[in-house]
Specification:
Layout: E1 7-13, E2 53-59, H1 67-87, E3 111-113, E4 122-126, H2 131-139, E5 146-151, E6 162-166, H3 173-187, H4 202-208, E7 236-241, E8 263-264, E9 283-290, E10 299-304, E11 310-320, E12 332-336, E13 347-351, E14 361-367, E15 370-378, E16 382-388, E17 393-399
Parallel strand pairs: 2-3, 2-4, 4-6
Antiparallel strand pairs: 1-5, 5-6, 7-9, 7-17, 8-9, 9-10, 10-11, 11-14, 12-13, 14-15, 15-16, 16-17
Helix pairs in contact: 1-3
């Protein structure tokens, strides 16, 4: 769809499935459309270069959060994304293509609030509307919890007029700030389902949370314990099976009742049980640990008791399954670059990450000199599959989210 307004990018987060056909596969999360152009441009980073993003805030008088709190909320959200990109060494182009004369500009990670009459690049609307936002939602017959919209991508300046719209969908300011983090993630080029706050079903999550829900503790956080963006050296992640049953067959006896976050030893293949003389409790904790990439065994699985005491370790070695696929999960910009010979350059995608991350890995764990093939992937959290030869099947476990 192409609008006379010249708008080609929008991320709309709605609580229910939108009625437009192109939205049906993204019910409750968000969508983008560009009217027949290069769809990859939809996910481009909005602002490149050293100059801070100039933004202003407009808020309804009776909005759930007062003006000073909204100002602090926007500053916190910018700071949270800055820390996130610093942690994962993102923000600078991965490499300079050979035909470019200079390195592509870096992502703009700093921001400065200005008055709304000083021609800001980015405007935040809390509980208010403008004609562009209203018209877009009317044309698409959809409303939602948040919207990030920018004008047609400028392939010369790499800076655009944009809007972030957050209605008063809830009185809980934590939910509002979480929604703000999500929409600001789109401004920085983050894709849906790459990390906890970018969950495509975020509106359904916020809609379902009630007072006292443990999941409330993850609000206003970009990463959750069970859903980080990537694993770095020293990372530890608790695991749980996809189904509460013995791998390979339904148990012939009831599984022991274990506290939340603990597994019955009967749920773990015998090949991974602690070896005698270790006395193993009926309920254990299973933890995946990421080691440095320059060591022989860059992953290990630890079995621990409820207090975190060591019971057993199984070491593993993994490598990227399909190098390069991770580029789609990091912020990037597809553009016809001007700083090239000849100018403009061919359409080239530039990822803004210094190292590979969020990649699918393949490898094995080794126990008693036997190798167990394994795969590690990301899908709304971490997924680990280990092949158990005695059962001739894959055992699937995932990051603990209960």
């Amino acid at each position: 769809m192409k609008l006379a307004l010249g708008l080609i990018l929008v991320f709309l987060t709605a609580p229910l499935a939108a009625r437009s056909p192109e939205l049906m596969d993204n019910a409750g999360g968000g969508w983008s459309g560009n009217g027949g152009g290069l769809h990859q441009v939809n996910d481009n980073v909005w602002y490149l270069g050293a100059e801070p993003i100039r933004y202003c805030i407009k808020a309804k008088v009776d909005y759930p959060a007062p003006a000073d709190e909204l100002q602090a909320m926007v500053r916190r959200s910018f700071s949270s994304w800055q820390r996130f990109f610093t942690k994962y060494e993102m923000g600078r182009p991965q490499a300079m293509p050979s035909f470019m004369l200079t390195m592509p500009p870096q992502m703009t990670l700093t921001a400065r609030e200005v008055r709304c009459d000083e021609k800001p690049e980015l405007e935040f609307y809390f509980g208010l509307d403008n004609e562009t936002l209203k018209l877009y939602r009317e044309i698409n017959e959809a409303d939602g919890y948040g919207l990030a919209l920018r004008t047609t991508y400028d392939h010369k300046q790499h800076r655009h007029q944009g809007f972030v719209w957050i209605p008063a969908f809830d009185q809980d300011v934590r939910k509002i700030e979480h929604m703000l983090l999500h929409e600001l993630g789109h401004v920085f080029g983050m894709k849906h389902d790459t990390v906890f706050v970018m969950d495509r079903d975020i509106a359904l999550l916020l809609k379902s949370l009630a007072a006292g829900d443990p999941a409330l503790s993850f609000l206003t956080r970009i990463e959750a314990d069970f859903w980080p963006f990537d694993l770095t050296a020293g990372s530890r992640m608790r695991l749980e099976p996809y189904t509460r049953r013995l791998p390979g067959a339904a148990p012939a006896f009831p599984l022991p009742a274990c506290a939340n976050g603990l597994l019955s030893l009967a749920e773990i293949p015998m090949e991974f049980h602690p070896a005698p003389p270790v006395i193993t409790p009926p309920c254990v904790r299973m933890v995946l640990q990421k080691n440095h990439d320059n060591v022989e065994n860059n992953f290990q699985v630890n079995l621990e008791n409820a207090a975190g005491g060591w019971l057993a370790t199984v070491y593993g070695k993994f490598q990227a399954l399909q190098p390069g696929n991770e580029e789609s999960m990091v912020p990037g910009t597809l553009s016809s670059w001007q700083n090239a010979r000849p100018a403009p350059a061919p359409w080239v995608y530039v990822p803004y990450a210094r190292r590979s991350m969020h990649a699918q890995l393949s490898g094995y764990f080794i126990r008693n000199q036997i190798r167990y093939p394994a795969k590690l992937s990301w899908s709304r959290g971490l997924n680990l599959e280990i092949f158990i030869p005695a059962q001739a099947r894959w055992w699937s476990i995932r990051s603990f989210s209960s």
